[in-house]
Amino acid sequence: MLADEGKTKEQLINELAEMRQRVAELKVSEAERKRAEEREKQLQEEIHLSSRLASIGELAAGVAHELNNPLTGIVGFSQRLLRKSTDKTVSRDLERIHNEAQRAVKVVQNLLTFARRHGLKKGYADINEILGRTLELRAYELRTSNIELAVELAPDLPKIMADFGQIQEVFLNIILNAEQALTEADHGGKLSVRTRKIRDYIEVCFIDDGP
């Protein structure tokens, strides 16, 4: 039996099957192209973030060094004045100055730790300590961006063998991504951070309510 243009039914069926195969291949190629574009975009964002972190590190090192000496002086002098003060109101104000200066010194030390470039240096590290010190680096920005921070750290987590600086950079990347997502939403939001032990593993969870 002959069909269109003198082709047999069997030839038309085969041609239809070939056409469907080509359409399927085109769809696969299109999906692969989209995946490649998405991966390219992701890599560009990671490169941008890496450059941003490098710039932050350089800036942090300079600022930290400039602040370290005057802050150390404030801590020392406020402590000396506290020992000499006999006025309760003055002592309370001096204690507040002393405590805030100590907190600022801690932030500066965290900045120096983050900014310091070093090779891979593994040792026993406390995940909660790394996480806490990383969160301190972004505490001010989170507050001013109206982002509520909820932290739930499991006590008595075992120490792990890791490079402090590299783990801190990973945590900072995640926090920055969450912060950016919440800031773009224009209304702040909430960032929840949690650690817990699951059998032989330590789980670190970051959850934000951004888009």
What does this structure look like?
This is Histidine kinase domain-containing protein. It is a single chain. The protein folds into 2 domains: about 5-115, Helix Hairpins; about 125-210, Heat Shock Protein 90, CATH 3.30.565.10. The protein contains 4 helices and 5 strands; from the N terminus they run H-H-E-H-E-E-H-E-E. It has helices at about 10-85, 90-115, 125-145, 165-185; strands at about 120-125, 145-155, 160-165, 190-200, 200-210. The strands form 2 sheets. A 3-stranded mixed sheet has the order 2-4-5, covered by helices on one side. It has a two-stranded antiparallel sheet with strand order 1-3. The longest helix is centred in the first third of the chain and has 76 residues, at about 10-85. The chain starts with 8 loop residues before the first helix and ends with a strand. The relative contact order is 0.08.
Brief synopsis:
This protein is an alpha+beta fold. It contains 4 helices and 5 strands; from the N terminus they run H-H-E-H-E-E-H-E-E.
